[in-house]
Amino acid sequence: MEKLFKNIEFEILNQGEKTDYNKMEYDSRKIDENDIFVALEGFSIDGHNFIETAINNGCKMVIVSKKVEILDEKVTYIKVNNLRKRLGIIASNFYDWPQKKLKIIGITGTNGKTTTTYLIEEILGKVARFGTIEYKIGDEIIAAPNTTPESLDVVKMCKKAIEKNIEYLIMEVSSHSLELGRVDMLEFDVAIFTNLTQDHLDFHGDMENYFLAKEKLFSKLKEKSNAIINIDDEFGKRLYNKYSNGISYSNINGDIVGKITNYTNHNMILEIDYIKKSSFETKLMGKFNLYNIMAAFGAGIALGFSEDVLVEKLSNAKRVPGRFETISENQNFMVVVDYAHTEDGLLNILSALEEIKKSKIITIFGAGGDRDKTKRAKMAKAAAKFSDFVIITSDNPRTENPVEILNGVEQGMKDIDYKNYEVIENRELAIKKGIEIAMKNDIVLIAGKGHEDYQIIGKEKIHFDDREIARKFLKEKK
């Protein structure tokens, strides 16, 4: 008991039978004999409602955040205030702090986190990687319900990484996870700030709170000199004022300066200037990927890699699923699927396409429901800036009325008197229309969902993959 709750205030509600506990779970369905059940209060589900199930499955300790009825005197009940925030420490105490044996690289920012994690993996080789697309421990792939796992899951996966002789953990660190305490039990060897643009204001309220949540990552650095910061971003400049002994990166003037020197048909050529200038070709396209590459380069420098090794590794980097992913069925126009789901994300991908386009750009996008409503019109204006024709459609409407979401997006078109658009609520039909009207040398951008293979309508998650749908209609068009 003393070990489990070391440095944690707790109250014993019931002292049950003493036992050796096997593992810790917050999902009652995963409880086995002699386990510990953590009754987490979520945004939609309260774990306290599943205590009886956990006890029936064999748990011998229940950790709660409020007073509850004692259902079995043989089970120990412990109350911990603000349990979600303290769970990481409790789990670390239980599993003997496996994360301390790993070198941990954390990436935060609105855009670019996922690609940057993949690029750093390219440098490091066998790693654990946690992020939006998946959780990976060596060769093992685990589905990712959240960008940053729940703290208990982080600790358990760190333990598994150590058992597999893995040295590095690379993780996307979301603003939600920093605010909710999911990474409170971690210290970071490297921290990267990519950028900050409007997103998640439904949770944070305003941009200042959003930034302050992101900034928390850097207070958890072991060495402040291992802060890697994009100073072309206004919030990045502000962060760099506090961590000026870190490594800045920029397209103009920083410790690392990157420039795009040329585009080929399928690649771009970069110049990275750190201690010396290095030029190389990459399959990753667009200025936003230049920034992702500089971020990964900075992480490599902080971890002690030579510039020559970094250039070699990064020049071989593969494209990331759902990020500037091209879909080909031998058609005579380009189809690109991208995760861009913010104003800045759309501007990034569309400005990159603008640089390589030979004819028209047709953009298909929508906005998610139950999320920040103020970004919808801004996304429309971003889409209109570089698109010759726009199709507004559903993304993940969730519990909102899809028509109201579409109206919010369409308002952005009306504000700027943009006429070249159509509203098609059904996402599959919207993709069909975009592919039907595409002509030789056009580019069709399908934005917003990227790697996701589902759509959330109401509270139901149904299978839906933009890439599959695009292939289906490309084959039909032949």
TrEMBL record:
**Cellular component GO terms held in the UniProt record:** cytoplasm
Q: Which residues bind UDP-N-acetyl-alpha-D-muramoyl-L-alanyl-D-glutamate?
A: S28, N146, T147, T148, S174, R182
| Organism of provenance | Haliovirga abyssi
Q: Where in the cell is it found?
A: Cytoplasm
Domain (Mur ligase N-terminal catalytic): residue spans on this chain: 23-95
**Modification N6-carboxylysine occurs at:** K214
Its annotated pathway reads:
Cell wall biogenesis; peptidoglycan biosynthesis
**Catalysed transformations (reactions):** UDP-N-acetyl-alpha-D-muramoyl-L-alanyl-D-glutamate + meso-2,6-diaminopimelate + ATP = UDP-N-acetyl-alpha-D-muramoyl-L-alanyl-gamma-D-glutamyl-meso-2,6-diaminopimelate + ADP + phosphate + H(+)
Function in brief: Catalyzes the addition of meso-diaminopimelic acid to the nucleotide precursor UDP-N-acetylmuramoyl-L-alanyl-D-glutamate (UMAG) in the biosynthesis of bacterial cell-wall peptidoglycan.
Could you identify this protein by its name? UDP-N-acetylmuramoyl-L-alanyl-D-glutamate--2,6-diaminopimelate ligase
